[in-house]
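User: Once you have settled down, look closely at the record that follows, taking as long as you need, and be ready to discuss the fold:
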Amino acid sequence: MAVIETLLSYIGGIGVVIIGIVKFSTSLMEKKMERKFEKEKTLFQSKLDKQQYISRTRFDVEFNIYRNLSQKFGLLILRMLADTSCCEYNEERNGEMCKLAYEAVMELYGSAPFIKKDLYDNFTEIYEKCRQMIAKYDELIKKKNCGYNEKLENEARELFGEYNKIIDKVREYNSNLEVIS
């Protein structure tokens, strides 16, 4: 019996040592894994922060581009509507429209790489129609035929309708932009 007790105590002692070694190595592995996951978490958080910044910046830039485009083209088209309904064309009014058209197209061309292709094409088409109307105004001025012109007024109204359709597309596009948060 003494031999069995000695044997059990010897096995128990080895068991305690083994348990101690296992606990110690587990603790070391746990700390190592914790450091590794903390490093990966930091890298992931850094990438996520960068994506959020890019997303927010992109949203802000695109929002400003479309706001500026709609404002410039809106002023031009409203001016055309006002001038066709007032029945008096002159070089000064035509010059103001040319200036507004220039500002609108410069805004468009300056932002071209950042504008959705179909919206860019729509704004370009509106600009071309505005340019053609300005040329018609210029011809009327040269011919000294500056009275009311129903055809030009209807063209301006159609242009305004097309402009509003583009603005609806811009609204839809902007509402689909997402900011990663």
Notes: The chain has a mean pLDDT of 81. Helices lie at 2-86, 91-110, 117-142, 150-176. The two ends are 72 Å apart (CA to CA). The first helix runs from residue 2 to 86.
